[in-house]
Request: fold
Amino acid sequence: MSRVCFVIVAAAAALLLGGCGADDGAGASKGADPFEAVSRQPSLTRTARRAAARWVTVARLTGDAPATHAVTIAPGAIQARALWRCTRGSLVLAVEPAPRSPLEKSRGTCPGKGETTWVKSGRQQLRVTAAGRWSVVVQHQIDTPIREPMLASMRAPGTRLLKSGSFYPVERQGTGRARLYRLADGRAALRLDPFRTSTNTDLFVWFSTAARPRTTRAAVGAKRLDEILLKATIGSQNYVLPKSVDPRRIRSIVIWCAPVSIVYTAAALRG
Reply:
């Protein structure tokens, strides 16, 4: 293989490994194999103070004529975006006061859909110009801890705390508490509070039958009753499961990284 081809392949591999197999920015030594570090040295890793960046919806807008709507992008947001759909003609988006840099992909042809991004925080006006029916979902990308209050249904008459447990590290760091409830309507609900795991994206919550998985292999070998995208790597958060999931069969909560197939952290649940 020529030197040029080798460099291209190596660069592509580096991009693939930059997902949730990475480790909070605590880089490995030059030339080290990150998979080897995960498989042979499943030690604790430093957890960053900032949560993994996530998109949060701040407004859902619809119309069938040009309109202007006020939206508020959180101070410190990394960026903002508008996910739009339209039915006929064309669609143009504008933000006032204008961001310092032009909006990315601010216009499109209908029928169609697209994504417009910009960098500006605070209260602003989003102007939508379109001839036919349109819809826009406005989101901002943030990396602050999530602060979801306890669901009212978790405190309602007829709700019962079934099991709870503390998170422990598997391949990555994890701390905090998991509490599993049976709601009055029969569904199971999970609350993580407090919660913290290593800062990366593409993490999922597994509701597992494993009693106390200490390795990725142990978690993969057990039955997974349900799977939900983790909302944030830091902070209090709630998850409600469908009625088809029997909470009595859930024995542990597992935080799973899909791209590189490793377990970050887990919590064994006991009643």
